[in-house]
């Protein structure tokens, strides 16, 4: 049978009110009284109702995190950075995977509100839910921080990577190696992919290499099967005589798919084909060859978002803010200069 606060009161010899004050730490209690109640709580293995405490204290010490996927290692590292900060402050997290679905993202956000979380962090929120004002509305009910995602004219707190600069670096690096036929590999429904595609087109036009543009959409870019989907799609491209000499992929799991496609086509990386990824997840440093990629400061993104959220939980400020972190091109072994 579940132990109740009444059981603790009876065993300790104090009133329910006194036990409640010890649990919630919201009124002064004598040290000897607190010690006795805490001993009984341990003895009976009593677990207070967090939601009930939240209604009393207006704090539940919980934070909701919504991610579009748990299978791309980018997101778990960001979550680890968030948790490293929140755990030290006594917070517990609810982790929700929306599977890159707008409706699921909304459902999870509403569910977190019903659980009286103290704040919400959304990683790479769906563009439609940013543009339609959904998250601006949520931010008026509970402290909210968005990590990356569509942010133009949006009145919310943001921690962002400078993905545009990172994409420019990647494209300029490939061009500096002599590549003129560069293909762009992306997924569907992502502001991040849209931004990188825009950069891809702008950089090619700037250098007057716009005659060869190839955008390859592999569908949802963060699923467990994205590597295989990318491999199969790129393999078809490589069967063409006028195939690219280089690929710029929107993330590292797509870049891995490109590597596998080249292997199937018996093309050497970097001897025949150069490949650049994005994110710098652990996989990019474990492949052969190791993948040149753009580091997105995943752990630091999470830390900054958690610190920003805590500030807004404590101060209840209504003013939105944003932090932009720099990216860095990590040059490894998957690219080669051509003549």
Give the topology:
Elements: H1 5-12, H2 16-24, H3 31-44, H4 50-57, E1 62-67, H5 74-88, E2 92-97, H6 102-114, E3 119-123, H7 127-131, H8 134-139, E4 144-147, E5 157-161, H9 163-176, E6 182-186, H10 191-206, E7 214-217, H11 226-238, E8 246-249, H12 252-264, E9 274-276, E10 293-295, H13 298-315, E11 322-325, E12 328-330
Parallel strand pairs: 1-2, 1-3, 3-4, 4-5, 5-11, 6-7, 6-8, 8-9
Antiparallel strand pairs: 10-12
Walk me through the structure.
Residues 3-57 form the HTH lacI-type domain. Pfam families: LacI (PF00356), Peripla_BP_3 (PF13377). The protein is of the alpha/beta class. It folds into 3 domains: 5-48, 434 Repressor (Amino-terminal Domain); 62-161 and 298-325, Rossmann fold (3-Layer(aba) Sandwich), CATH 3.40.50.2300; 163-296, Rossmann fold. The protein contains 13 helices and 12 strands. The strands form 3 sheets. Strands 2-1-3-4-5-11 form a 6-stranded parallel β-sheet, with helices on both faces. Strands 7-6-8-9 form a 4-stranded parallel β-sheet, sandwiched between helices. Helix 1 (5-12) packs across helix 2 (16-24) and helix 5 packs across helix 13. The longest helix has 18 residues, at 298-315. The chain is elongated. The protein starts with a helix and ends in a 9-residue tail after the last strand. The mean pLDDT is 92.
